[in-house]
Specification:
DNA polymerase, domain 1, TIM Barrel, two-stranded antiparallel sheet, 12 strands, binds S-adenosyl-L-homocysteine
């Protein structure tokens, strides 16, 4: 599929004709667009590099702070109304487990939630968590992937890797010692204000979708959190998951541009980023063709069409056959695999028969499964399954040769866990200073 890296809002073109620059936020502009802005201002070309450095590396909040620019240029930019566009942290909620849920506001007053997890999200390969690292080592142990198809040889049981994985849940329960978290943090970012997908178990769905975020607003969440946490990639190892509010593949161009800026300018490695989609099939094909792309996770959440349609109405449009065909055609890179997420809902999709159906769906694929016991919330009709049901589900997958990990919930007490993002300001937790 073609690379769809086009400028989402045609800013390059707009800049050339725009006498009034007051709509321009520097955050979200790439090098070409910044070069065009500099040209438009009649400034030398090297200014574009200075803007990149100030906006994406120093993460300045105002034009005034860009000390490499002359005072005159700063004044001109201020007069013309050019802004940085760094979003504002409106509130912080701090969990007992160290997770921080940020309420982040944009210029128009809309806001989203962004989550900082100081020791990984407990399950995404490449997120720096133990589960992720085990998963990465497992990928190495089964060798390089076939670049055109993500198939594993039938019955190639990844025994050694699975034995190592078997210790994972036990180790995750241990509390990290102080200072041990350094270098394995994960930021979970939002791609839309609200969400249109309407998954029955997800709190964000209750909001509906308000609007797409711009590329600058997506990158801006990361910059704001990095600044607040006083960390800086690549020196600090930061992992990123596009798993917050919204469906990234329904805001595809802005998401792709943001991922590119995060890699090229902010300095977060591609292999440390994962995007999760509810299953927007045409975009899965497109995404496989992107030159710069995070790893792919697909929210499976059900083992057959009837169940999936009930839980995720989008399955009517893109059913399991279409979804699995796209996943099987996805061009995996060396040591890459697809992650399937499966939210376990007590008595609904968590039975042994469901686990067996999942193994059938995933047969022969280069993939792993992240099991997430439901994070409950007001207005959600489902219940969290017992730990032993989760364990049986996981065992069935593993015995069929499908690497399966149980994701540890993060920040449930502050409504920061998967599916709990809904701007729950009213939750009875005191914002941190
Ligand atoms: N829209 C994207 C990304 C956001 S959701 C997607 O659907 O993939 C990120 C993950 O959280 C998804 O796998 C989703 O299935 C899961 N999730 C949603 N609600 C949840 C809940 N209440 N408890 C646990 N996981 C949930």
């Amino acid at each position: 599929m073609a690379d769809r890296c086009r400028s989402p809002d045609n800013r390059v073109l707009a800049l050339k004709v725009m006498a009034d620059l007051s709509q321009i936020s520097l955050l979200g502009l790439d090098r070409a667009e910044l070069a065009s802005l500099v040209d438009n201002l009649g400034e030398p070309a090297y200014r574009a590099r200075q803007f990149v450095e100030a906006v994406y590396r120093q993460r300045v909040e105002s034009i005034e702070e860009i000390s490499t620019l002359s005072q005159q240029l700063r004044l001109t930019l201020a007069e013309k109304g050019v802004s940085i566009g760094l979003p504002r942290i409106e509130k912080r909620f701090v969990s007992q487990d160290g997770t921080v849920r940020y309420l982040i506001a944009f210029a128009d007053g809309q806001s989203v939630e962004t989550v900082w997890m100081p020791e990984g999200d407990g399950g995404e390969a490449g997120d720096g968590s133990e589960a992720g690292e085990l998963a990465e080592r497992f990928a190495e142990s089964v060798g390089p992937s076939n670049s055109s198809a993500n198939a594993l040889p039938e019955n190639k049981a990844p025994n050694a890797a699975l034995k190592r994985c078997a210790t994972q849940n036990q180790r995750q329960d241990q509390k990290p010692k102080q200072g041990q978290n350094q270098g394995r943090s994960t930021i979970c970012i939002s791609s839309q204000v609200g969400c249109a997908v309407d998954c029955r178990f997800c709190l964000t769905a209750l909001l509906g979708v308000k609007r797409n975020l711009t590329a600058g607003e997506i990158v801006g969440q990361v910059c704001a959190v990095l600044k607040d946490q006083k960390v800086s990639p690549p020196e600090d190892r930061i992992n990123l998951v596009f798993m917050g509010m919204g469906e990234p593949f329904l805001n595809y161009d802005n998401f792709v541009k943001a991922a590119r800026l995060l890699v090229e300018e902010v300095g977060i490695a591609e292999r440390r980023m994962t995007v999760s989609t509810a299953g927007i099939v045409p975009r899965i094909y497109d995404f496989g063709g992107q030159a710069i792309r995070p790893k792919l996770a697909i929210s499976l959440n059900a083992s057959n069409d009837a169940l999936r349609t009930r839980l995720m109405p989008l399955n009517r449009k893109w059913n399991l056959e279409m979804l699995m065909a796209a996943a099987r055609a996805y061009p995996l890179r060396t040591r890459e695999w697809i992650t399937f997420e499966y939210v376990l809902l007590g008595g609904v999709n968590d039975g042994p028969e469901n686990a067996k159906e999942v193994t059938e769906l995933l047969r022969g694929m280069r993939c792993k499964v992240n099991l997430i016991a439901l994070n409950p919330g007001p207005g959600i009709e489902f219940t969290t399954p017992d730990a032993d049901r989760v364990a049986i589900f996981q065992k069935i997958l593993r015995e069929a040769g499908v690497p399966a990990f149980v994701r540890r919930p993060r920040g449930r007490d502050i409504y920061a866990a998967c599916g709990q993002l809904k701007r729950t300001v009213e939750v009875a937790t005191a914002p941190a200073p």
